[in-house]
Specification:
The structure is a homotetramer. Chain A has 2 helices and 9 strands, in the order βαββββββββα. By secondary structure, chain A is α+β, with helices and mostly antiparallel strands. The first copy, chain A, has one domain: Hotdog Thioesterase (Thiol Ester Dehydrase, Chain A), CATH 3.10.129.10.
């Protein structure tokens, strides 16, 4: 498996705004689409069960505590875009993802960076029965998969 | 209480698309905002408890089985719009809402219809424990409130 | 070319709502994604130029005057869905599209209809210079392509 | 005029996701709604004309080059939320806005911070006729108004 993961998407009409470009908030939706596709590529779902030795199965979730985006070039209706995901830090309970948005992806010479973004997500469990979530250590089964793709 | 209910909203930038107008799918979101504001105006929430004599309390929901919209005039960024709700039919388990979108609402002479829409919603309960929803009769406590605002 | 066109999409997390299912307004966005993919499959863009013999080139657009959806089954996060487009009527200036949403598409026995929808779109031109759009006849170059896929 | 500006909004159903909370990307939409309401409060529109002495009138826009959000507490359907805007830096061509999301706003004791966010926006002009935007100095008429509300 390569050190990064990417998906290809197209800017849909509903993603644009009256300035004629992709609305900035949709870059965040696209990053999440990439994150979830990455999880599926590992054989996991975002709502997957992490089963630990000596522990009950546990449903974990990944709410974000930070999201940011730096915008360099506009994306327009029907533009193909490649969204690349890298893991920059893998903490005991957190993951820091970095994303790159590439435009003009069909032409290696024109290919250029449209935006970069970051998510810090926390591994949480609903375990406990009070309905509250709490940060938990990333289950080892998931950690092993994430370690395989961390950027070096 | 008058025979109709309305709210005032403004078209936000994220509601527009590259044609420079409110994206058509957002008319449906605006209708739902109006429906939920209507429920709150009755002292109910969309997720409210209907308590029937001789029955356990029951949480009801209102999924839509039909939604439609006819578009007459475009709405643009920052346009103020009045969304008017009328109940057209009140069945034992269903409600048919009609919506009107009014633009140029600040000027009685220019006030004109931008769109009309319809929702058919069904009263459902999660009662039963199998996690499945089923259509139920509209709780009498809610029905009484809806009857007060039905269009005649 | 077959008598219908379809695309495959996945329900993304941002498409869902607090009821745990795809928000109903997003069915309309998905139908438009299918409509635009259909246009691209014909070698056209929604903002394409229709060049008529004896006429200047003309940019045409396709605003919708009607959109509706009937909801039969919920779609959930990560559900694969096939959206099928059929042309039901081809008028001189209008097209009536019908859409079917198929779920459980990976299993022919479980494959079932989640929703059906309709768009009536009007061919318009910005020609004229006053910035106003007006309904125009569908350019023959486009009409020929649409006629090839009309349902019979 | 006070040193900050705020608006009150409610979390709508379409703003939530299958985790039962406001989808994180919608915090960015809410910040923009606040930014635009702030501009209107100054008697400006986001697409307003800045008229400089000795210069032609010039339409300026405010694309963002950076947006970020730190999430502290979830917002749920129908939650009232106050979004507060502060100007943190006023450059010659840029503005740095900071936003606070306050929940439980109806109860001073329970009032607490749900999220904080930042936008860096650049003043741009379409002046020049080639359809390209370029960063320009904030028109003095607008700068004067912004200076009145900068946080100290």
């Amino acid at each position: 498996m390569s050190a990064h993961f990417s998906i290809n998407k197209r800017v849909e009409f509903a993603d644009t705004d009256a300035a004629g470009i992709m609305h900035f908030a949709n870059f965040f939706r696209f990053m999440e689409v990439c994150e979830h596709a990455f999880f599926r590529s590992l054989g996991l779902s975002v709502h997957s069960m992490g089963r630990e030795p000596g522990r009950d199965s546990m449903e974990v979730g990944w709410p974000r505590v930070h999201a940011s985006c730096d915008f360099k070039q506009a994306l327009r209706f029907e533009d193909p875009v490649e969204i690349e995901l890298n893991i920059k830090e893998l903490g005991s309970k957190t993951v820091l993802y970095e994303f790159c948005f590439w435009k003009n992806v069909e032409d290696q010479e024109k290919r250029s960076l449209a935006a970069t973004g970051k998510f810090t997500v926390v591994c949480v469990s609903w375990h406990g029965g009070d309905g509250k979530i709490k940060a938990v250590e990333i289950p080892s089964q998931i950690r092993e998969k994430l370690e395989q793709v961390i950027s070096v």
